[in-house]
Amino acid sequence: PSLSFFFPEVLSNPILTPVHGTLEVVMNQNVSLSCHSDSGSPPIKYTLFKYSQKVSTLNRIDLMPALFNLTINSASDVGEYKCKAENKIYGRRYSRSLNFTLEEPLSKPALSSPTSQAKKGQNATLSCLSEKGSLPITYTFFKDKRRISQLVKMQKEAAVTFVLINTSSDLGTYKCRAENSFRNSTKYSNSFNFTLAGMHSCNSQPRIIFLGLILLAFVIGFALAIRFFIIPSCKAGKLFEYLFHFPYMLIYVLSTFKCANMLQVELHSWYFRILSTLLLTSISSETFTRQDF
């Protein structure tokens, strides 16, 4: 009689591959992983792991690969995957690890500086950061739509550039751009402008000066009306003494604002113009006597 012998095949290390050929995934995407040993006697039991935690198990009685279906619901679903193949003859074998990369759209980058005021000749700092988005992120800085920096690839840190403030044209407008591997993910920041230290506050307070002058004219007019219609002429000197000291009290109050020096110059100038006019008018009409004044 003839005898036949069966020699079981050696179980090879399984190969773990993505079915669709890419490891870049987005949130809520369905992915499939194939685990297959090229040689080995069935049945073969395949097990998928994420790190050291078992995800799923499939048994194959033929030499077809095992397919594992996953859904990327969060960043924790992206990690190191491995699969294990085992049978009753040669034990177990493990595949090489496989890692997914989560592609996330960028958030709008924020362009900032430690200070919005700069002195002439100063190297000012600009930083650009997108808080969300798959890494790495490529940043570019612009001034008035003209690129002023090279492409900078960053991981989690902000990109930084320095600008030299020499003239008023160096004050702005600045922007930055962020890009990553996610399709159509280019985002631009809001614009940013520097101001020369000590200049912006004076230019921003013409209304305070105007209101101060109106108040000064109103009080002088009110005092003049009292002088002519209410207070006897013998008390005119006291009235003008109070009137003379009033603008200094007003300037003291307004000195709490920025540009107090400019306010003082303006109020002094206008006050003495008005006071001179009132004195000339009073003398010409012989309303006051020398003693009253």
TrEMBL record:
Cross-referenced SMART domains: IG
Keyword Chloroplast: no
Cross-referenced CDD domains: Ig
Superkingdom, natural source: Eukaryota
Membrane-spanning parts: 208-230, 242-264
Pfam families: Ig_C17orf99
UniProt feature coiled coil, ranges: none
PROSITE patterns: IG_LIKE (PS50835)
Assigned keywords, A-Z: Disulfide bond, Glycoprotein, Immunoglobulin domain, Membrane, Signal, Transmembrane, Transmembrane helix
Domain Ig-like: 8-99, 109-195
Name of the protein described by the UniProt record: Ig-like domain-containing protein
